[in-house]
Design a protein that fits this description.
With 489 residues, the protein is of the alpha/beta class. It has helices at residues 51-68, 73-89, 91-102, 106-127, 163-176, 191-203, 217-224, 238-250, 274-286, 306-319, 338-353, 386-389, 405-413, 428-437, 470-476; strands spanning 16-18, 21-23, 30-34, 41-47, 134-136, 142-150, 153-157, 180-184, 210-212, 231-235, 255-259, 265-268, 298-302, 358-361, 376-379, 396-402, 417-418, 420-424, 442-445, 460-461, 464-465, 478-486. Strands 14-15-16-13-12-18-19 form a 7-stranded mixed beta sheet, sandwiched between helices. A 6-stranded mixed beta sheet has the order 9-8-7-10-11-21, sandwiched between helices. Strands 5-6-22 form a 3-stranded antiparallel beta sheet. Helix 3 runs antiparallel to helix 6 and helix 4 runs parallel beside helix 5 (163-176). The chain binds nicotinamide-adenine-dinucleotide (NAD). One of its GO terms (molecular function) is aldehyde dehydrogenase (NAD+) activity.
Length: 489
Amino acid sequence: MLLTVPQDKQKIITQLFINNEYVNCQNPQKISVYNPITEELVSDQIPVAGEHDVDAAVAAGNAAFVKWRAWRGTARRQLLLKFADLLERDQEELGFLTRLTLGAPYLAFGQGEIQTAVENFRYFAGWIDKFAGESFPQDDGFYKVVRNEPLGVVAGIIPWNGPLASVGLKAAPALATGNVFILKPSEKTPLMAAALGKLIIEAGFPPGVFQVLSGDGSTGALLASHMNVAKVSFTGSVQTGKTVQILAAQSNLKRVTLELGGKSPAVIFDDANLENATEWCVNTMTVNSGQICFAPSRVYCQAGIYDRFLELYGKKFTAKKMGDPEDKDTSLGPVIDKAQYDRIVSMITTAESEKQGTLLQGGRGTTGKGFFIQPAIFVDTKENATIYKDEIFGPVVVINRFETEEEVVAKSNNSKYGLMAGVFTQDINRALRVSSAFDSGVVGINCISTINISCPFGGTKESGIGREQGSAALRCYTEPKTVLINLAY
Ligand code: NAD
């Protein structure tokens, strides 16, 4: 059954969620969203929150913050757990609302994405009474207490490629630590975010604690430059991330977390288990049609195993079924929209015409409706080529050959990105040496492009600032306050 827009358009909410109410947007501007499978219009009524809307949400947030930060930890924990249960209960509907404009298959992507959100709310709920701060003895006459204080209004500006997971990654730690949260979803996937308002009310969040403002970059910029927003937690492209940091600095020096792009290297040594290496590299490159920040889009394979690796990688790549995300055995959906389709196809054709590398297979758009691109493999790519250096954010991989460990470490690190890297080898000494040499926020040994909720996730270099998940995330949403108690009085 083809993914189609429901006749009953009731499911599509075209209002903002401010102070626990669905309200009409004061700004008259609207956005259109389309179904990437059928190319039909889903809605042309998505509101773009403007200055007055943003001001209203920020004011409601700051008013709510005073009480919310003082809530009993156990009560806050219950709320987050209830919200996680509601997300889980409504996962099919939320998944559908995301899929309608994203196009990624539910089983191969959507289900895991929602589970990430659910688990983040549960995980950070568990931290609420365990991030108390520190104390130091009165050896100098002062008893010292260091409290982890919430910041205030946190704006979560998120991308389209993992919209619900991003809500969990940002809202859960922000709310757990006593901040209030304003969600600004991507203009390409606004439907699921708008539906969250109903669950926020049902969970019992007080007004102003968790709000949703749809909009485009202009809404994001209003939040990033707002004088009464204390922090922006941003996920998106490097270019926009830099703009957000500038806006934050030019306004009130608000805190920023930036989760940005990547061009993650996978390094396959001659002694690697070929089946395991190809399985990881292909599966994580094709999920969500390569529109994943930490996809292994730059592969280096050692000369002795190179031909066999290429053959198996190519076979597995081709075996991925592309088509309707409603089919259970579909692995690859379309890319999100026409702009993304045109950008990727143009990068591929330019790479071919400029001989940036050799296109081994795929790389063509399919005929008929839908923004489908056959997954592409480029080999022998030049190291100064765009296709080799830049994030494509689509089903396009570059695979190059290497000879020595020293050479491949240098090549892997010669990138402005540092989000994820992976090394595949049976030699544990080499695996540990290379993992330590990678300049990257996360490293996989005999695996790649996977994360764990208890451990920090984020990038070095231009892949970002700050970390999500694990206790590291809590530090990004709090500021230590030192209290000195003079015991002489
Ligand atoms: P984007 O930068 O175009 O947009 C991201 C968000 O920023 C959207 O909500 C958008 O409306 C908003 N925005 C746009 N202009 C803005 C401005 N001037 N001020 C404030 N906000 C603004 O990114 P995208 O196309 O939605 O997402 C794809 C990018 O996200 C890729 O580069 C990908 O690697 C990255 N990403 C990173 C991670 C990570 O965890 N590191 C995860 C997912 C995606």
